[in-house]
Structures are given as structure tokens and as C-alpha cells.
Amino acid sequence: MHYIDITGQRFGKLVAQTCGSPDRQGNMLWHCTCDCGRTLLVSGTNLRQGRQKSCGQCGSLRLIDLTGQRFGRLVVMKRSTQRSANGNALWQCRCDCGKQVVVDSQRLRKHITRSCGCLRNELAKKRSYHNAAFRKTQGNISRLKDANGVFFCSTKKTKRNRTGVIGVSFDQHSGRYVARLRYRGQYVLNQTAATLQEAATLRHRAELKYFKPSTTD
Prior knowledge:
Blueprint: E1 10-11, E2 14-22, E3 28-34, E4 39-43, H1 44-48, E5 70-71, E6 74-83, E7 89-95, E8 100-104, H2 105-109, H3 118-129, H4 132-137, E9 168-171, E10 176-183, E11 186-193, H5 196-210
Antiparallel strand pairs: 1-2, 2-3, 3-4, 5-6, 6-7, 7-8, 9-10, 10-11
């Protein structure tokens, strides 16, 4: 089929990249890239006749160049080639600590993100230091155990538990279930099993062996 080659040509905000297949009317469709970063298929006829000049989603929004600007500990280096899920521009930034991160433009301009994460860690340490209750118990592992010396994490199901069985998790890498039990500061059970039932049985046997009857009911 004969068609006019417009590869690399610009039409408003659109740049024709590669030729696709014809539409139902026989007009050749072109894979185009918009200045906002989106890609789309556009009829070559519509491009040449000026009927379509953008992706239609970026509207009249103008990209605000943040290069060189400082936001907290972050200095914007350059625009990223990617875009966020909501369509916002992403910017590569350097933190004062030396680490580089990619941040959403809106989070920068609204001062939501002000560092690579180091600022949040420092503030958390300061709050902990000035918390009298925290400092009083800091380093005291006895508060993590019950009267029998059993760690509370060994007898309570956490929010991260996905198997429904205390002390049993699923290892994505090996594809096997892992049964664990920590008693008096040491792991007395750390064994894998092919099925959840087998892992649960291993855990139950360890509980019967190391825990008092009242903790296994």
C-alpha cells in the first residue's frame, strides 16, 4: 500500500515514530509520541491536515521545568524519561546525603518529599530520643517476652501473616512453606515443607515441645 512517509516529522506536540496498520477507511495509522510522554496511534491524514496535534490528555498544561531547583534536601538534576501512574512528570534528584532518587513533580512542589528518606529517619530518631518511655525500655528485650521467656511474636499472628498459621510463612523464591519458632532468644524450629499442612504440623509439634499447655490451646 502506498503511503506518505512522515517518520520523525512533528505535528504540534506529536512526533511520528513508526508506521502502523491502516484503519477501516484505509488511512495509515502512525505510532506517535506526545511531548507529555504518552504514545498513541493517529491517522496520517489527521496529522498532515492538522486535525490532531496532541494526545488530547495533556490539554494545555505546560510542563514546569524544575531543573536546578531545591526542595528541602533535594536538588533537581533533570527530568526522568518515565512518568508517574497519574501522568505527572518525574524528576531525578540528588539528596544532600549523596543518594539519587526519582520523585513526582507534584510531591516536590507541594513539599511532600523533601529528601531521599534520610530526613524521615533522622526525625524518627530524634522523636525516639526525646520519648522518655521509649528511652526507659530501649535495649530491654524482656518487654518482648512473656513470663515464660517466650517472645510474643512467636504466639501472636501479625498483620503480615498470609498463611493464617502463626509461625508459618511462604517463601516465594523456593516455593515452599517455612515453619519457625523462636524460644528463649533462639530459633528452635526453622524448617521448610512442601505444603501448608506439613508446615503447620511442624509448628504445632514444636509448640507442644517447648511451650506450656496454656500457650498451645
